[in-house]
Amino acid sequence: MEFEERYFREELDYLRQLSKLLATEKPHLARFLAEKDADPDIERLLEGVAFLTGNLRQKIEDEFPELTHGLIKMLWPNYLRPVPAMTLIEYTPDMDKSSVPVLIPRNEQFTTNAGEIRVDEVLPSDAKKEEPPPEESPENKTGIVRCDLIDCANNFKEITTMPARSLCQNFLNNILAPLHLYRQKSLIDATNAVINGASLTLTSIGRHLTGTASVKNKIKRVDRLLGNRHLQNEVSTIFQRITQKITRGMSRVVILIDWSAYHASRFQLLRASLACDGRSLPLMSCVVPSSQTANADVHERFLESLAECFSPGTDVIVITDAGFQGRWFQQLRSRGWTYICRVLGNHYYNVGNGWEKVSDSGTKASTTAIYLGEGLLGRDKNAQHEGHFYLYKSKPKGRRFKRSKERATRPSVTAKARTAGKSPWFIFTNSTEFSPKQVMKLYSRRMQIEQNFRDEKNPRWGFGLRFGASHSSGRVTVLSLIATLASIIMWLSGFSLENKGIHHKYQANTVKHRRVISLLKLAENVIRHSPLILNTLSLDAGLKVLQQRYTNMIMVY
Transmembrane ranges (predicted)? Predict the structure, then answer.
């Protein structure tokens, strides 16, 4: 409170002096300000104004380094970064063996030993070669290479984080266009921090922000970002723009929808993800209190927002687990979408042989997917749904539940998961386009969204949202937006790197007939070990390749 008190006293003294000066020079305007006896009403007014102006002055001074450094870098770049030591590099090609001028590739790397100035490694950020005029012979001519040299020892953090930030900015510019410029920059910086290793918590993101401001001011900046009411109201629009950009040009999309506790039991997250090869791509999320879990009105608003992102001719396939029942099927059917849903528990179905319990269908299941027929789901006439039924039971995988001594026992949760895992897949759908094997293959991709949840919440394998302490739905919503943006950037980066064949260099083995490390883990390793490779990537180009290959990628049986 020392700084707050200092600002308050300085502003209060200034207001008192200014009020006396005004009363002396302009007595017809403010003669009461010059009275010797202090008026309590006037004192209360001056103290209130001093408190507000002192608080405003403190906030401005907290952000002053960021503002001034940003302006100076634009107006006078060399002021904060003086001209470094220069090195002349001479190439002596053998002209007898080459009849054409020697081409020095752009961004070629040079290595030098440390001299009087301790620079362990020198990397050129830009290199150009001035060739002799074409009419002159290259013999006895010297090419000049101009390089911007960077001191890696002093600027290593900036070098390793800037390629990722440029990647974020180039890809997210159009998506974040409706936002205020300051919120755009803050959101991109927060996404870049998560990509570069920050956990999905307020303080961790603040500590990983780049820039010259103090860590305290960076954490305050993230705090203001998460609590920004305007951004919280714009999150749904951003999600829609993300979905539109990713699914643009796709004739068919397979959407995975599921609920998950986020990040504690007080909130639930309803998410739609695009099924892909490997991890799913998160598209849209909605954070609500736990009391509204599986609420039909929440489902309706969510599907309405999702439907606005697709063109009328897009074939939408929605895959969900057994937690979606009742009006859910009607809501999907009214939009002309195909749904593939699992049914569990004591539900009844009728395919022409009378009403049967879903839980009793295990005797009919086998390791070969079968079509049971067309019929009704639910005996209640007000909640009956027409569709097609499929049944399949996979072979036992031989898994055993292993719990460490540190983990608390949760027998009810374990028993429920064991029962669901051993139960056959009883699938209900409104389409006959796919064979039984294809239906089961499509439903098996539903696990991708569970991996997506783990990527965000797990502190060991993901972004560590579980460590978060945010207690308002608005802040958790902004965190889910940052997680979505970071996941998309890393997924597309890994996809582009894999298409270039770079993934083989980061494997622990020589396997080439299948994927060994996930796309997100590949991007994480490249950012950690070789961040300058990101300068060669274009996420928009990678997204275009995904859109062209998507149908063949997802319809592999």
Answer: 476-497
Sheet strands side by side (includes 338-342): 281-289, 267-274, 252-261, 315-320, 338-342, 425-429, 385-392, 370-377, 348-350, 356-357
How does pLDDT run across 260-316, given as a tens digit for each residue? 998 777 899 999 999 998 889 999 999 999 999 999 999 999 999 999 999 989 999
Question: What fold, for 241-401+426-481?
Answer: Transposase Inhibitor Protein From Tn5; Chain A, domain 1 (3.90.350)
The token pair at 436 is 């039984």
Residue range(s) of every CATH 3.90.350.10 domain in the chain: 241-401+426-481
Coil, strand or helix at 376 = strand
State the DSSP H helix or E strand holding residue 386, giving kind and residue range, or none if neither. strand 385-392
Q: Where are the alpha helices (DSSP H) in 423-472?
A: 436-444, 447-457
CA distance 242 to 440: 29
Q: Transcribe 25-69 into DSSP letters.
A: H-HHHHGGGG-SSPPHHHHHHHHHHHHHHHHHHHHHHHHHHHHHH
Q: Are 17 and 10 in contact (CB under 8 A)?
A: no
| Strand bridging mode 338-342 / 267-274 | unpaired
H or E element, residue 260: strand 252-261
Residues with Cβ within 8 Å of 431's Cβ and at least 6 positions away in sequence, in order, are: 338, 340, 388
End-to-end Cα, the chain, rounded Å: 65
- In terms of phi and psi (left: phi > 0; alpha: psi -120 to 50; beta: otherwise), the region of 255 is beta
Inform me whether the pLDDT recorded for 408 exceeds 70.
no
